[in-house]
Design brief:
The protein is α/β, with parallel strands linked by helices. 26% of the residues lie in helices and 29% in strands. It is globular, with a radius of gyration of 16 Å. The structure holds 1-O-pyrophosphono-5-O-phosphono-alpha-D-ribofuranose, hypoxanthine (HPA) and magnesium ion.
Amino acid sequence: MHQEIEEVLVTEEEIIEKCAEIGKQLTEEYDGKFPLAIGVLKGAMPFMSDVLRRVDTHLEMDFMAVSSYGGGTRSSGEVKIIKDLDAKVEGRHVLIIEDIIDSGLTLSYLVDLFKYRKAASVKIVTLIDKPEGRTVDIKADVVGFELPNKFLVGYGLDYDEKYRNLPYIGVLKPEIYSEQES
Ligand SMILES: O=P(O)(O)OC[C@H]1O[C@H](OP(=O)(O)OP(=O)(O)O)[C@H](O)[C@@H]1O
Ligand code: HPA
Ligand SMILES: [Mg+2]
């Protein structure tokens, strides 16, 4: 698996350090508010697990599964709900947890949905921001790392469902995906 990576952009140590920093920030922001922390599956799973263990106040966890990338490297433009929340959003302080904001389509869809469901507040925390990928105007409230417009894998991010279990974030060797997308 590791030999298929061309370059590591964020190391495991940098991610661990960042999760502690963000966890502290979220503790201060949400202390006493019992936020509803919503992980966007599948990609957000490792980040959600690491960051929320550094948040030192009560919170509720829930999950939503959405998908717009299929097996490829480009967004289909259509966000599909695969699993909806169990919790009610009305009156809750919603904290959306994402691995990446790229085109912004997934998060703009989810922010609109949670506002429509009458959340008391909606904030976004994302480990990665690729601002150059944006096709809709949306910003995250908390960003771990801003990265260049390359297709990334690792730490939740997949290519064709693989590489999510890498402990770092990197770029694949071009021959890995050009074989399938040519
Ligand atoms: O800003 P965008 O261009 O919408 O891209 C970001 C979204 O794309 C990825 O999810 P994907 O749809 O691939 O599902 P996955 O989490 O199951 O991989 C990622 O986990 C984000 O949810
Ligand atoms: O760079 C990316 N890598 C994997 N999944 C993604 N979904 C949006 N952008 C990306
Ligand atoms: Mg994906």
